[in-house]
Amino acid sequence: MTTTLEAVREILVKKYSLPSESIKPEATLDSLKLDSLDLVETLFEVEDEFHIRVPQDGSINLKIATVQDIVDIVNRLVPQQIPAQLVSDH
Amino acid sequence: MTLRRVVVTGLGVISPLGNDPGTLFSRLLAAESAIRLITADGPRGQYSVIAAPVEFDPAQYFPPPQKTDNLDRVSQFSIAAAAMALKDSTIRLTDDDKRRFGVSWGTGMGAANTLEETYIQLLQRDPDRVKPMTVLTVMNNAASAHIAIQHGLSGPNLTYSCACSSSAVAIGEACRQIRHGYADAMIAGGAEAPLSFGLVKAWEALRVLAIPDRANPPASCRPFSKNRSGLVLGEGAAMVVLEEREAAIRRGARLYGELVGYGSSNDSSHITKPSVDGQAHAMSLALADAGLTPSDIDYVNAHGTGTALNDVTETRAIKQVFGERAYKIPVSSTKSMHGHLLGGAGAMEFVIALLAMHRQAVPPTAHLEHPDPECDLDYVAGRGRRDQNIHGIMSNSFAFGGTNAVLIARQTEQ
Predict the structure, then answer these.
(1) Which of B38, B78, B89, B92 lies in disulfide reach of B237, CB 3.0 to 4.6 Å?
(2) Chain B contact for A41, CB < 8 A?
(3) To probe the interface with A, which of B67, B125, B133 has the most A CB atoms within 10 Å?
(4) How far apart are CA B218 and CA B212, in angstroms?
(5) Is residue B148 classed as helix, strand or coil in its secondary structure?
(6) Which residue of B has its CA nearest to A40?
(7) Which phi and psi angles does B134 have, rounded to 5°?
């Protein structure tokens, strides 16, 4: 089963042509040259990939600084928003 | 205070008759029409509409890694035309120059395509979300912002929207920015991309579109002709580089002409019905602004939409301002060939009028075979005329909402 980190990494590699090895959990979005709009677009793709909705929060770009922050949001929202049997099928 | 003078040093177009000014003008002189029946996908299968579409390959103007996902068609046209005009001007900008260089852009309906796609997506497919960059794609200043970003132009950045005179207003107001010293150069113009399903339906509903000529679709738009039946929607963008005259001469720029007059008025009477007085007022204001008289104007590029009302009203307004001279100068509507570019029309037609002066050739009004007794000027029926003697041109733009904008340019000795 694909881990959340691997799935997020795949999104970033595909969308921004980033080298896969640069996308470490502790890597900041700044260091990957991703700006606030890139974060918004990334969250859109993350929503599609994990079948979740990231709640509206106008200060989200202050709360997400690293790749791990994105992974954490996914890992928190998936159990909240997806019924258990669907998660295990993913 | 002595006002500074303004010259045009660069032209760029994405037009139904080709994506460079030279091709556009040559095809106009040959009375070639870009108007045709196009078919597109609608919600209940294909539909057809008479229109003047642009042939445009985004990859040609936005090579990888540039992307166009977050640029509406109207912005793509504009960015491409702006880059073309800047290149044509051969201007080389220092960082200081860029701080004194602005953008002035006009559109009637802006990023209508993206807005329409967004509603279709929202109402038919996913009521939950739309593309993340939707706001930034449809905001009306998107095109002018992207032009500034691409070229680092940090002077005034302005977007005007007054229907079919939008881009003429954008050019006129840009001229004032330079005249009054707020900027040393401006790239100015506008665009429209109105051939989406919803907008075509909206224009149909207003009952101003021409009846398609089934036997000869390119001849569907017939301004000033007795058998005219309405306007034909076109799309595209036109941009001009305006510079303070002395600086342009110092750097040895090629001068297409001096922008000497701008007149702006409103009919203040009816949301669509044009007014002779309102149009005449704008023409008179432009002449006064230029310090010229009708005898200084040798060609008028008419608004000439091909609607029943416009062409008679404009003819009367020209006669009111020009008197006997109205009968002695060519007045043509190139919309008969490139269609009505709405918010982009004023800039496109100003470029055409400048080229008429630059090349001493007048483009025709195509498909004028049945004269209307109420339209009795020299509309240059048939093909264009070469070897003219043109020292001053006027370009008319009139709009729903009543905003009239008239631009005048003169030849400049280098």
Answers:
(1) B78
(2) yes
(3) B133
(4) 9
(5) helix
(6) B132
(7) -55, -50
Q: What is the pLDDT of residues B91-150, one digit of tens each?
A: 999 999 999 999 999 999 999 999 999 999 999 998 899 999 999 999 999 999 999 999
Chain A positions in Cβ-Cβ contact with residue B132 (cut-off 8 Å): 37, 40-41, 43-44
Contact by Cβ (8 Å): B338, B16: yes
Phi and psi at B385, nearest 5°, equal: -120, 130
- Overall residue count recorded for chain A in this entry: 90
| Residue B129 to residue A47, Cβ atoms within 8 A | yes
Task: Indicate if A35 belongs to the active site.
Answer: yes
Interface predicted TM-score (ipTM): 0.81
B106 within 8 A of B167, measured Cβ to Cβ: yes
Q: Which of A34, A38, A41, A49 to mutate to test the interface with B (most CBs of B within 10 A)?
A: A41
- Which residues of B are the active-site residues? 164, 303, 340
Reduced DSSP (H G I as helix, E B as strand, rest coil) percent helix, strand, coil of chain A, to 5: 60, 0, 35
Residue B224: CB partners within 8 Å, gap ≥ 6? B302, B304, B311, B315, B333, B365, B368, B371, B372, B375, B377, B379
pLDDT digits (tens, 9 = 90+) for B192-207: 999 999 999 999 999 9
Cis check for the bond before B65: say yes or no (omega within 30 of 0): yes
A48 touching B (Cβ < 8 Å): no
How far apart, in whole angstroms, are the C-alpha atoms of residue B133 and residue B22? Answer: 36
Contact A37 B133 (CB under 8 A): yes
Tokens 């918004």, located at residue: A40
Which two structure tokens, joined as six digits, stand for A83?
């019924």
Q: Report the Cα B80 to chain-centroid distance in Å.
A: 15
The alpha carbon of residue A59 is apart from the nearest alpha carbon of chain B, in Å, by 16
